[in-house]
Amino acid sequence: MTLVQTHSRSTSTHAVPRTVADAMDATGPQVWEDMTVEVALSVMAAARTGHLVVCDEDGQCTDLVTRARLIAVRESSGYTDRVRLRDLSGDGGLFASPPAPVAEAEYAMRHRRPGVLSVVDDHGSALGVRALSR
Questions:
Q1: Which of 18, 43, 62, 113 is the most exposed place for a label (fewest CB within 10 A)?
Q2: Cut 0.85: pTM above it
Q3: What is the dihedral of CA 35, 36, 39, 45, to 10 degrees?
C-alpha cells in the first residue's frame, strides 16, 4: 500500500477543496481480491464505473483496479479465466489519507498514472475515491 504523504497546513474557508476529504467522491463498488478479472469487468459494467476498490478478507483496501488495467490483463498472452484480482502484478495500489492535500494526491496520480486513488482511514478501510482533476 502506498500512502500519499500528509503535511499540516492552515485551513481556510475557500470553496476550493484543500484536502482529499473535501474532494473525495463515494467509494463505489468494493470487491474481494479473490474475484476473477471477468467478474470484475462485469461488476464495472453493471455499476457503470471505470474502477473498483479491491479489499482483502478483513475488509482492508489492497488495490484499486481500473477498466483499462483489467482489459490489458485479459488481452495478455498469459491470461486465463481463472486469473483473480489478487494475482495482478502491481505495487498494491495508490492510497491517500483524508487530510492529505489535494495537490499532493493529484501529483501522485499524474506521476503514477492510475487517474484515481482510494481514500482510506488509519485502518485501511475505504472512505471514498479521488479522481484526477481534468
A1: 113
A2: no
A3: 90
Counting beta carbons within 10 angstroms of the beta carbon of residue 3, is it exposed (0 to 12), middle (13 to 18) or buried (19 or more)?
middle
pLDDT of 64-99, one tens digit each?
Answer: 888 988 999 999 998 999 999 999 866 556 677 777
Location of C-alpha cell 481534468: 134
* Rounded Cα–Cα distance for residues 22 and 53 (Å): 19
Amino acid 63 reads: D
B/e letters for 43-73, b = 16+ CB within 10 Å, e = fewer, are ebeeeeeebbbbbeeeeebbbbbbeebbeeb
Report the run of H or E that residue 44 belongs to, with start and end: helix 37-47
Give Cα separations from 90 to 2, 27, 110 (angstroms): 11, 21, 17
Q: In whole angstroms, what is the distance from residue 53 CA to residue 102 CA?
A: 20
Local structure of residue 48 (DSSP, 8 states): T
Question: Is the Cβ–Cβ distance between 61 and 126 less than 8 Å?
Answer: yes
